[in-house]
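Consider the subject:
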Amino acid sequence: MRRKILIVDDNAELVKLLRLAFRSAGYSVATAADGIQALKKVKTARPDLIVLDLVLPHVDGFAVCETLRRCARTAPLPVIMLTGLGSQFARLAGLESGGTDFLTKPVSPAELVRKANALLNSPAAAGASAGSA
């Protein structure tokens, strides 16, 4: 069964690029353009990993991640925060809100796929996915 990635970003061109990269790497991909859609898609798509922009309409990525971490089913999901906010404060706030990793835009799609592969193939991810099955 293919692993699922949820890409949450309001930049349609970036979403298309990342969708193509993840599909080429063998992943199934769902997308959301804002924080509210993201929280709904997590329930329906049941992703194995989330790529989350921090600056989103309606509900920002920090709040989305904090909400995911408060729910037992979604708390173990790896979340790669991908943002144009390059300050150390943004990085610390992102990780504090529950992000697993933090990347600054622009990012190479290949680098992002490598990060996702590493997170999904780590021993912690194997235990989390076994627990959510």
Observations:
- The longest strand covers residues 4-8.
- The chain is about 50% helix and 15% strand.
- Confidence is low (pLDDT under 50) at residues 129-133.
- The CA atoms of residues 21 and 109 lie 6 Å apart.
